[in-house]
Amino acid sequence: MLGTLRNIAALAILAAVAGFALTWVARLTEDEVARNRLAAETRILRELAGVDVDAAVDGDLVLCDRGQVIVRGVGRGYGGQFRLAIAIGAEGEIQGVRVIDHQETPGFGDILDTPSAWLQSFRTGDVHAVTGATVTSEAVMLAVERIAGRVNLKALCPS
Amino acid sequence: MPVLNRFSEAAIARNPAWVQLLGLCPLLAVSNTIANALGLAVASAAVLIGSATLVSLARRFIPADVRLPCFVLVIATFTTLVNLAMEAYAFDLYQRIALFVQIIVTNCMILARIEQVAAKESLGRTVLDACGAAVGFAAAILALGAAREVLAIGFPLAALPPGAFLVAGLLLALTNMRRGQATDTGASAPADEKPQARTVAGQR
């Protein structure tokens, strides 16, 4: 009985110390982490738009400029939720797709990291699922279809 | 000098990667370039030295029955701390090797070092052993990273995952050849080396 209590006490104390340390460091680094993530997202969005954009804006609409709309959205892949950005032209055509962040298995998720020939194929409209990464690639295709289909260009971006 | 012996024994005679064959998953996965290899080596070193120090300090308070959960908790905490620090202060590197930093928690090299050394020995010896093991692991992963990056210039396969196995196998064969020669001439090889290797292999 005493031994059991001792075991529980040791684990509880250790867990409490670990919890405090982690919370403290997480709080210490959270601003810097948020800044880094935003900078990475801005880099991706800028590259997609070809012009300066602000990734910090609220909501899904990132840019509405000379017939080009950039929207963000989420999808669900093999490893969880991923975020992506889609550039849509004045006629509703897809001009580009970029994945902002994802948790797909390394190797299988490489098709989502720029530069990716597979993501480029969205520009032609001739997109196929990738062998070996079926779940990941189909999830992206589905998300692009859903997000681009939902975008009402005139309402979002009256020119 | 005992201090130097302790360090070099941990780094060379009981090198975690080439002699004990522990921690090979990150070793193979992240050794595609020297920069990635260095990043993982530093992260592993921080987790190993931090956890070993803490366990050695607290070893009298950790009950034998629950020592493994305690060790894993300590290692997991240090791994997460290193992960947070990297995400905040080395974001580019973090984006490339984050997953392999996170799975340092399952690196059996670290748990083995803590179970065999930190849980039993004084703080000074533990820190020396942990530093030695960290340097040994860093040397192994950097050697593999450098070999792959150089070989990839004329032999692109070396940079790809199968190349990791090929190059690691060749380096391991080289080390074994050297160790074989050393044992033949009776020059090196501490007496406890062979039983050591057997117990570790049994745990793997």
Structural overview:
The complex is a heterodimer of chains A (159) and B (204). Chain A has 159 residues and is α+β, with helices and mostly antiparallel strands. Chain A has one domain. Chain A has a four-stranded antiparallel sheet with strand order 1-2-3-4. Chain A is elongated, with a radius of gyration of 21 Å. The model of chain A has no long low-confidence stretch (mean pLDDT 86). Chain B has one domain. Chain B is built from nine helices and no strands. In chain B, helix 1 packs across helix 7 and helix 3 crosses helix 5. Chain B is globular, with a radius of gyration of 17 Å. The interface between A and B is medium-sized, with 20 and 25 residues.
Strand tally of chain B, please?
0
Largest interface: A-B, 20 and 25 residues
Please tell me the total number of domains of chain A.
1
Number of helices of chain B: 9
| Order of strands in the sheet with most strands of chain A | 1-2-3-4
The ordered H/E elements of chain A are: HEEEEHHH
* Shape, principal axes of CA atoms of chain A: elongated
From the N-terminal CA to the C-terminal CA of chain B, the straight-line distance is: 32 Å
Which key terms come to mind for this protein?
heterodimer; A: alpha+beta; four-stranded antiparallel beta sheet; 4 helices; 4 strands; elongated; B: 204 residues; globular
Summarize, please.
By secondary structure, chain A is of the alpha+beta class. Chain A contains 4 helices and 4 strands; from the N terminus they run αββββααα.
